[in-house]
Amino acid sequence: MTTDLNATALAVFIFFFVLVTVMGFVASRWRKPKTLDHLDEWGLGGRSFGTWITWFLVGGDFYTAYTVIAVPALVYTVGAYGFFALPYTIVVYPFVFMVMPVLWKRASDFGYVTAADVVHGQYGSRGLELAVAATGVIATMPYIALQLVGMTAALKALGLHGEVPLAIAFIVLALYTYSAGLRAPALIAFVKDIMIYIVVIAAVALIPSKLGGYANVFAAADAAFQAKGSGSLLLLPNQYVAYATLALGSALAAFMYPHTLTGIFASKSGNTIRKNAVLLPAYTLLLGLLALLGYMGHAAGLKLESANDVVPALFQTLFPSWFAGFAFAAIAIGALVPAAVMSIGASNLFTRNFWKAYVNPQVTHAGEAKVAKATSLVVKVGALLVILFLPTQFALDLQLLGGIWILQTLPALIFGLYTNWFRAPGLLAGWFVGFFGGTYLVWNAGWKPLQPIAMGETAFTVYIGLLALALNIIVAVVVNVLTPAKVTARA
């Protein structure tokens, strides 16, 4: 991949980046409320987003710039195993359809803004509330940093190197998020998703014709995997369990993250969420098409410094400069939307479940909004520092842990929607064992998310997140049985 400055591509990139920047600042006047000095308005868009806005917003923060870069890169590297993202994004939507409207109603009825609010309302435990809130913030930080990995790949392809272009982009993001709150990424998501659809459809329609057709694409990828002795076009038998558990665990974790829950809480009704659960699989089709770009990288004979460069290199090599600039703008904007929602979700958690809980319980609505705005700036700066001063691999390792960590909040958040049998001490003990046990297993496995298991002559690997969740639930049940109920759980 060449990294020389391309004036035409850069001009197109700048045009669209300026366009979404203007939209970000205009968003404060879009569906303008009486005041933005309220967390419901700044952090949740007034809880008024309908089906289409929610579809673009949730799709925008679920299918991120890092997804556009990482999924094809994984397929380029390992082949069929990298397609686990497809079943995971199918399995997740029945879960969303059944569970998220119930969670939305609980939050709407009691004015909850975060998952930790819901947990505290259900169990009355500050300890459990803090555990859920801290897990959400910790798991989100590397996720924001990884959006910068996607943006960095696009900037490098344009010939923009160093920290300055990345810092400028995130300063702009920080300013319009501070100004407009959730309305900014919601409005920008319309442009971002349309651009991504155009880019992907053009790629899967035109690139194979330049490479001799799909038969040649698959043949070239197969030959490349055989030549290096790893990777395959089809799953190998010893990958079946790992593939299935990665898909299931990732699906259960996906809507536990603060940014996806922010999109859910911002919806105007439970029916809006159900409609989105039906419509959102359209993004899975998009993801499947994107994944194929990994195979196309082999057919194009690309010489890459990093697998993360496969998508930018394809556009740079096979398309005219103006369209390459358009594609790089789509990838960069695809980083801004989820990064904004993630920072808002994390700042909501800090404001409601730390600042209000421990520092200033009497804080006003305007005070909450002020703290959340300031925290959103700190979160973005923190993510930027991670990517600038720590190796990218460190952020990748933390993101692997992020999925395992956030999965441990599921029992506390979801079980209480359906039963009052569980109590705070058991759930807190379960969270502790799952969180730290999962962390240890990942560290012991050399920062890999899979754990080998042998049962007699049968050996397979399992996603550590599911193992930790199973242990979490077992501990919660045992502690709940062994400890007497002292206080009746609150609805």
UniProtKB/TrEMBL annotation:
It is a multi-pass membrane protein. It comes from the Bacteria. It is found in: Membrane. Its main location: membrane. Keywords: Membrane, Transmembrane, Transmembrane helix, Transport. GO terms for molecular function: transmembrane transporter activity. The keyword Transport applies. The chain crosses the membrane at residues 6-28, 49-75, 81-104, 164-182, 194-220, 240-257, 278-302, 322-350, 371-392, 398-418, 425-443, 463-482. The keyword Transmembrane helix applies. GO terms for cellular component: plasma membrane. Belongs to the sodium:solute symporter (SSF) (TC 2.A.21) family. This is Na+/solute symporter. It comes from Rhizobium grahamii CCGE 502.
